Amino acid sequence: MSDIPQADSFYSKVSMHLLHQAVVMYQSNLRAGTHKTKTRAEVVGSKKKMYKQKGTGRARAGNLRTPVRVGGGHAFAKSTRCWYYRLPRRSLAVATKMALRVKVEAGQLKVISDLKLADHKTKSLLTLLGQHSLKGEKCLLVIEAADPNLVLASRNLPNVTVMRRSDINCHEVLRHRFVVLDAASCSALVGS
Is residue 49 assigned to a domain? Predict the structure, then answer.
């Protein structure tokens, strides 16, 4: 296990407002927005008046597609919507560093120099996590270069996520209880 960097090496101070904005953006971008119901214009049926206005002894009735009738369209129908938006790239980079600082201050960031596996067995990864008292915890493993063995070994563990350093964001960092960096990715994050 390598030395854990100081909290100041990631960012000088934490802005909860920026972290909140970034997490809301990432969660908003995960929304599908595929909800849809039909308006009275989209429901199948005639626009013709059902029966004459007077002389039947019944209430006045318009067409079949009115929202009042069973099988009619919705008065205020839901329509599909895209929830996607982006914050500036620099703001997101700063938010990621702030999230890493939060993890350092909480004692939930670990640096492992030898974050590599000889084979692609899940048992090997569980052994490695057990050595660092992370077995059963929700962990984000951050590696500098792609490692197929680590990715394949973690695929069967629901609480373990493996990401490259270039792909991490503040939402992923804050979503996991522990963040585990390899030595190369840690030095790259501290240096940038």
Answer: no
Domain count, the chain: 1
CA distance 77 to 75: 6
CB count, 10 Å around CB of 91? Answer: 15
Residue 52 lies in a domain: no
DSSP state of 185: H
pTM higher than the cut 0.70: yes
At 59, give phi and psi (nearest 5°): -70, 155
Residue 76: inside a domain? no
Whether residue 183 is contained in a domain is answered as yes
**Band of pLDDT at residue 147, cut at 50, 70 and 90:** confident
> Could you give the CA distance from residue 132 to residue 110 in angstroms, rounded to a whole number?
9
Cα 91 → chain centroid? 17
Q: How many residues does the chain have?
A: 192
